[in-house]
Design goal:
Elements: H1 11-25, E1 27-28, E2 35-36, H2 40-69, H3 72-78, H4 85-93
Antiparallel strand pairs: 1-2
Length: about 100
């Protein structure tokens, strides 16, 4: 296990997602024109959206870890250079 200070954190990722998604969860109340609270369905959609992003991130980290463990020759057999690992993992996780 990595030391605590070297572990990747999901907090910045989740904070960024929340900043972009939460404004879309609010809707105008018909009577007052004010922003109202999100409905239960909107909240559940938000939670499922966050969980899908977390799963994608975990899939990305797993792919990076597994490809990083391979030797240069094994990577060459796959047609991947070591500097391409993160790009390949990103394509795999977020496709």
């Amino acid at each position: 296990m990595l030391p605590k200070h070297n572990r990747p954190t999901l907090l910045p990722l989740l904070f960024g997602i929340a900043q972009t998604y939460i404004p879309h969860c609010k809707r105008k109340n018909k009577g007052t024109g004010q922003n109202g609270p999100a409905t239960k369905q909107e909240f559940l959609m938000f939670v499922s959206y966050i969980l899908s992003k977390v799963r994608s991130y975990m899939r990305y980290r797993e792919t990076v870890r597994e490809l990083s463990l391979l030797s240069d020759r094994e990577l060459d057999d796959l047609g991947i250079s070591r500097f391409q690992i993160e790009n390949v993992a990103r394509q795999n996780a977020f496709a």
